[in-house]
């Protein structure tokens, strides 16, 4: 794990534990041993620590968390590095993250490849840097700058780290880093220990920082603990500060939030794995993508590929729609440029890769064609039948349908093996989730290519099987059915939504309906009023786009309770002979959240999702499920399957005639076991 090379009087220690040189027990033991031996070796004048492979280190080994500790502990190792009587130089390339950066902070000097990134991302795992990072970083770059890095968890480029004083020297390049580090080591006579420094800050700095970030860190334990630990660095000597850091670390790591956030980390990586596929499968080359439809979805989808440097041919039926669609894309890019996140050249580069056309035959040159047309099976079948006659052999044909059967769509072609679903979420240029829908006859290489391509354009893809609504939208169905029923029985849209936002969702079912459009799926006959949705739509309350839906809007997307809606609901109750009753928040939880979990369990038992954690990834990235609650399936596991079953049984009579309990859910509740197979 640790390779040692003596270059005359400089000892080079190379951490070699692919893929990320995580600081597991054997790496720690190897480093500690080599360091101790170097202290007693008169031939060694200085020590260089660097990482082999693609990075310095991705940090502590997260898989060790929760297991019995193995010595040496990372904090003790970092202390030993700092205590070295001979100068130690950290040579950083790729990434130095978390414990990796803490090892570098224990070094007396740091040299970095200009392309390297340095960060303390522990907060995104619900913990804080626990190997002295909260104490040494402020001593090196100041309390305010350290707060920014530690509380955001966002890595900074080496150039910025050099300006901040975190890096002493930038190398010419990645290739020359090792040689430059050794040469640099020869110029250094004595250790220079960060722990010997002190850092001062006005206590008001911490209060101000917490107040400025209140919205982001509200309800989260880790960022608050990070602030407390950095404050300790300004008040206490190193050892006492480290004790404080350790105490906070131990508290966080045993908490539910950290467990949930670590689950999300591994869930996201597990989602990339496709069951039953050979690892060495050959991907199909995708040089050009075709998109059918220049509406909101088609435009957003296209932008993902353009931004990744992949040319797109976008097809519409009328020039006006094509111009409108490309205009929106350009304006979206320009808005991003105005915020400083793109340069004018990057905007032009992306737009130059776009070929707008009315000629359907132009799709013949595309390796992947994504249909983003109207959500109607007949329309889709017609498009795919036409594509069958145009697309080149081996081209992948994808539908962005949110609900419809990929198998039925595929049957409209003579090449069902090339057909799959690529379900993007709106706004498609922003939302990370893509459900990659595997039809009964989708070829393994087409599926693998879909997954790899989605990752290439920066998305988080999850494999889903064919069913109405796939994973995410299928789980929305019981939630919305119950939410609607609750309104009739006595709840208000505000009450139902409040339960969801208090839980941590960005919005509740009715705010979401207003955003998506209350008129989606409406029959468009104002005289036919069979549901609340019909009644709202008949009065032009189509959602945010009309400034009226389940809520009133003030032009700034800010919902306020609507007396008109209250009256519509009242009238409906009278017509249906329903006497409203008080509805508890607990009932709302059970009927709108537990029912989703039940649907998730069915999705799993039917093999629509490969694993329970995939369902969590869908809800994290597609619907804003609070990451510190892991995802619906993880959350259910945390509160207990038996509690979910009990709750559902208690309200069984109110869950509608179609409601059935998932057998898998009942079985797991009886066995008290997690849902994943
Ligand atoms: N510990 C254990 N395994 C890790 C790991 C870590 N710190 N970081 C990554 N891995 C594993 C991943 O799970 C994945 O395993 P898999 O192939 O079996 O799925 C494999 O390494 C490759 O990871 P990625 O697919 O994420 O590789 P990328 O090249 O895309 O990204 C990375 C590399 C940026 C380093 C990314 O993996 C990452 O962000 N890792 C976590 C970084 C982090 O949070 N570090 C802090 C750890 S906590 C800590 O240090 C506590 C200390 O303060 C005491």
UniProtKB/TrEMBL annotation:
Q: In the record, which residues are listed under signal peptide?
A: none
- Location, primary (coarse class): other
Report whether Nucleotidyltransferase shows up as a keyword of the record: no
Q: Name one GO biological process term.
A: fatty acid beta-oxidation
* UniProt superkingdom: Bacteria
Catalytic reaction list: a (3S)-3-hydroxyacyl-CoA + NAD(+) = a 3-oxoacyl-CoA + NADH + H(+)
What keywords would UniProt list here? Answer: Fatty acid metabolism, Isomerase, Lipid degradation, Lipid metabolism, Lyase, Multifunctional enzyme, NAD, Oxidoreductase, Peroxisome
Q: Which residues form the 3-hydroxyacyl-CoA dehydrogenase NAD binding domain?
A: 289-464
Q: Which family does it belong to?
A: Belongs to the enoyl-CoA hydratase/isomerase family.
Q: Which PANTHER family match?
A: 3-HYDROXYACYL-COA DEHYROGENASE (PTHR23309), PEROXISOMAL BIFUNCTIONAL ENZYME (PTHR23309:SF49)
Assembly, per entry: Monomer.
**What is the recorded name of this protein?**
Enoyl-CoA hydratase/isomerase family protein
Q: Which organism is it from?
A: Sphingomonas chungangi
Lineage from the top down? Answer: Bacteria, Pseudomonadati, Pseudomonadota, Alphaproteobacteria, Sphingomonadales
């Amino acid at each position: 794990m640790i390779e040692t090379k003596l270059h005359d009087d400089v000892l080079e220690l190379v951490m070699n534990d692919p893929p990320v040189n995580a600081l597991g027990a054997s790496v720690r033991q190897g480093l500690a041993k080599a360091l101790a031996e170097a202290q007693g070796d008169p031939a060694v004048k200085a020590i260089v620590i660097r990482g082999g492979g693609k990075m310095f280190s991705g940090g502590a080994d997260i898989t060790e968390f929760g297991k019995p500790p193995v010595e040496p502990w990372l904090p003790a190792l970092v202390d030993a590095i700092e205590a070295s009587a001979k100068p130690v130089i950290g040579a950083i390339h790729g990434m130095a993250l978390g414990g990796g950066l803490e090892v570098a902070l224990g070094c007396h000097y740091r040299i970095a490849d200009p392309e390297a990134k340095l960060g303390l991302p522990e907060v995104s795992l619900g913990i804080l840097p626990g190997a002295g990072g909260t104490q040494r970083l402020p001593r090196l770059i100041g309390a305010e700058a350290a707060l920014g890095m530690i509380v955001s968890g966002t890595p900074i480029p080496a150039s910025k780290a050099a300006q901040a004083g975190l890096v002493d020297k930038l190398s010419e390049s990645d290739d020359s880093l090792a040689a430059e580090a050794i040469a640099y080591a020869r110029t250094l006579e004595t250790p220079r220990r960060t722990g010997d420094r002190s850092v001062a800050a006005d206590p008001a700095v911490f209060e101000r920082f917490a107040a400025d970030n209140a919205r982001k860190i509200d309800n989260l334990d880790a960022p608050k603990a990070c602030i407390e630990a950095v404050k300790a660095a300004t008040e206490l000597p190193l050892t006492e500060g480290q004790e404080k850091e350790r105490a906070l670390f131990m508290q966080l790591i045993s908490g539910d939030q950290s467990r949930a956030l670590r689950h999300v980390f591994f869930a996201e990586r597990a989602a990339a794995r496709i069951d039953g596929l050979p690892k060495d499968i050959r991907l199909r080359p995708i040089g050009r993508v075709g998109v059918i439809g220049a509406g909101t979805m088609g435009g957003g989808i296209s932008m993902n590929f353009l931004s990744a440097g992949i040319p797109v041919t976008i097809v519409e039926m009328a020039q006006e729609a094509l111009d409108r669609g490309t205009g929106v894309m350009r304006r979206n890019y320009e808005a991003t440029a105005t915020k400083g996140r793109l340069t004018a050249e990057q905007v032009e580069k992306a737009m130059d890769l776009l070929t707008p056309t009315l000629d359907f035959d132009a799709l013949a040159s595309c390796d992947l064609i994504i249909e983003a047309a109207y959500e109607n099976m007949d329309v889709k079948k017609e498009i795919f039948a036409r594509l069958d006659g145009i697309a080149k052999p081996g081209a992948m044909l994808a539908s962005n349908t949110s609900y419809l059967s990929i198998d039925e769509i595929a049957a409209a072609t003579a090449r069902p093996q090339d057909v799959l679903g690529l379900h993007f979420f709106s706004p498609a240029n922003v939302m990370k989730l893509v459900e990659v829908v595997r039809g009964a006859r989708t070829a393994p290489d087409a599926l693998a290519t879909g997954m790899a391509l989605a990752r290439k354009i920066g998305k988080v893809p999850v494999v889903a099987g064919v069913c109405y609504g796939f994973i995410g939208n299928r789980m929305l169905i019981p939630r919305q059915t119950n939410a609607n029923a609750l309104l009739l029985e006595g709840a208000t849209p505000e009450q139902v939504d409040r339960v969801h936002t208090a839980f941590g969702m960005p919005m509740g079912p009715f705010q979401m309906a207003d955003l998506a459009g209350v008129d989606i799926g409406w029959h468009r006959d104002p005289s036919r009023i069979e549901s609340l949705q019909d009644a709202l739509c008949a009065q032009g309350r189509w959602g945010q786009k009309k400034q009226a839906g389940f809520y009133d809007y003030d032009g700034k997307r800010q919902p306020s309770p609507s007396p008109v809606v209250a009256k519509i609901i009242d009238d409906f109750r009278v017509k249906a002979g329903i006497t409203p009753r008080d509805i508890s928040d607990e009932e709302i939880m059970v009927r709108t959240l537990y029912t989703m979990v039940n649907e998730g369990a069915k999705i799993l038992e039917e093999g629509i999702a490969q694993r329970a954690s995939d369902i969590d990834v869908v809800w994290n990235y597609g619907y804003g499920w609070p990451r510190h609650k892991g995802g619906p399936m993880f959350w259910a596991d945390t509160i207990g399957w038996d509690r979910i079953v009990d709750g559902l049984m208690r309200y069984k009579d109110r869950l509608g005639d179609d409601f059935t309990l998932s057998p898998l859910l009942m079985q797991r509740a009886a066995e008290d076991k997690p849902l994943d197979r």
